[in-house]
Structure to design on (255 residues):
């Protein structure tokens, strides 16, 4: 049986891990190198590093910092932020990334997904989709949730699948940082619409929320930040909780 994954996320700005609510009100959460090592030791299944201002500032991801984080990891490492080309991805893979996450650049130029899948394989390509409900429809946003696009969540998800993406990282902007639970209904529909693994993001605040996102939302992985950064939930305790509720997780390392 394929296990469900727990993935801490490092949102990085100016070399520090930060976390906010609904993509706003950011507060410092610590050093990304120290946090990455801590999560690897705690039994996280993967780690995601997002340079959250790279796109807005029209610059590349901070390769030196990515390399420093990667040196301490023995788990899959996904890096995103400011990726616009095959060359950008090649440099991040050399710095220690295992996968890359593309978002705004893929919305502006969808052929980028095809190019990355051909060059590096679908398993390397995660397409991040930030969305919010507008007039009853799930609309996709670019530029860190600041720019509404004409894209609709499920239509865009089907297209990125056809173009060769290996995974989808779906964040509900309205749930982000609220700790009120994931957007399980939207996730359940997404699981029906595409056959790609779906990583759920936005709203994880209690162990029950993670149980709901796997059991009801049918997510393949759950990504969270503040509940881990500020030690409100420990990864070993969360995995034990999920295991006792019959959710398949990799938990032997923590017991």
């Amino acid at each position: 049986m394929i296990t469900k994954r727990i993935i801490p996320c490092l949102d990085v700005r100016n070399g520090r891990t930060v976390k906010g609510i609904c993509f706003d009100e950011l507060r410092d959460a610590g050093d990304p190198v120290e946090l990455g090592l801590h999560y690897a030791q705690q039994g996280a299944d993967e780690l995601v590093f997002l340079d959250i201002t790279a796109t807005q500032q029209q610059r590349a991801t901070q390769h030196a910092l990515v390399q420093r984080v990667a040196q301490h990891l023995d788990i899959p490492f996904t890096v995103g932020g400011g990726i616009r080309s095959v060359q950008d991805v090649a440099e991040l893979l050399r710095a220690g990334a295992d996968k890359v996450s593309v978002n705004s650049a893929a919305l502006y130029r969808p052929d980028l997904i095809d190019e990355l899948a051909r060059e590096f394989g679908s398993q390397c390509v995660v397409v991040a989709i930030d969305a919010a409900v507008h007039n009853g429809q799930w609309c996709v946003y670019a530029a860190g949730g600041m720019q509404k696009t004409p894209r609709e969540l499920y239509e865009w998800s089907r297209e990125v699948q056809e173009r060769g993406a290996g995974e989808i990282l779906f964040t509900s902007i309205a749930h982000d940082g609220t700790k009120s639970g994931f957007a399980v209904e939207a996730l359940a529909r997404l699981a029906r619409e595409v056959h790609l693994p779906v990583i759920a993001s936005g709203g994880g605040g209690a162990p029950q929320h993670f149980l709901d996102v796997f059991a009801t939302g049918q997510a393949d992985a759950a990504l969270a930040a503040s509940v881990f950064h500020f030690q409100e939930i420990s990864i070993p305790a969360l995995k034990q909780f999920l295991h006792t509720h019959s959710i398949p997780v990799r938990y032997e390392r923590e017991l």
About this structure: The first helix runs from residue 32 to 42. The first strand starts at residue 5 and ends at 13.
